[in-house]
Design goal:
This protein has one domain. It is 34% helix and 15% strand. The protein has seven helices and four strands. The strands form two sheets. The chain has a two-stranded antiparallel sheet. Strands 3-4 form a two-stranded antiparallel sheet. It is globular, with a radius of gyration of 19 Å.
Length: 174
């Protein structure tokens, strides 16, 4: 508990938290930056042993941020299902998002976890270690906090519907 409190103080001191109404849904921390997760390919967390840096050649704008990809295939996968591949909480630190009323803190894209088919990023390895101790409770808190402190509500996802064609077979007249 003391470590959690200490890390919360450090994160508060080293990062300015914007007002709730001005926190973007996607983490693009940095001056004049519009790249999500510091330009890392979100699909590479799923299909590679380590996350890969994306390339401007393969980029896609989603939720007001540019997402970069290591190759065209990853870009197409993301475009088809961005919520499947995008990190939870817009790429903000999962542990900080769960803390108190939630905080939008930048991450180290190389510090990550896939849990229950979802990608979570953390500020650093020490924060990740704390987050893993209470992961299930932290996810519940962060799930509540993220829409409360960011503008994610403005993005209404349209689910793709698949329309199966049911074949109609006619019996031959006998």
């Amino acid at each position: 508990m003391i470590i959690r409190w200490f890390l919360a103080i450090i994160l508060s001191i080293t990062h300015t938290v914007a007002l709730a109404s001005s926190v973007a849904a996607i983490n693009t921390k940095g001056v004049f930056n519009s790249a999500a997760i510091k330009g890392y390919d979100p699909v590479s967390y799923w299909n590679s042993t380590t996350p890969q840096k994306g390339n401007k050649q393969w980029r896609f704008k989603w939720r007001g941020a540019y997402w970069y990809f290591a190759n065209e295939e990853n870009k197409v996968l993301f475009m088809d299902s961005p919520t499947k591949y995008a990190p939870q909480y817009g790429g903000y630190c999962a542990w900080a998002m769960a803390d108190g009323e939630g905080r939008a803190v930048a991450v180290d894209p190389t510090v990550w976890t896939i849990y229950n088919h979802k990608l979570y990023l953390n500020y650093n390895a020490n924060v990740k270690a704390e987050w893993l101790k209470t992961q299930m409770q932290d996810i519940a808190r962060a799930n509540h906090n993220y829409p409360a402190i960011t503008d994610v509500a403005q993005y209404k996802e349209v689910k793709k519907e698949t329309h199966a064609i049911t074949p109609i077979y006619k019996q031959k007249d006998r």
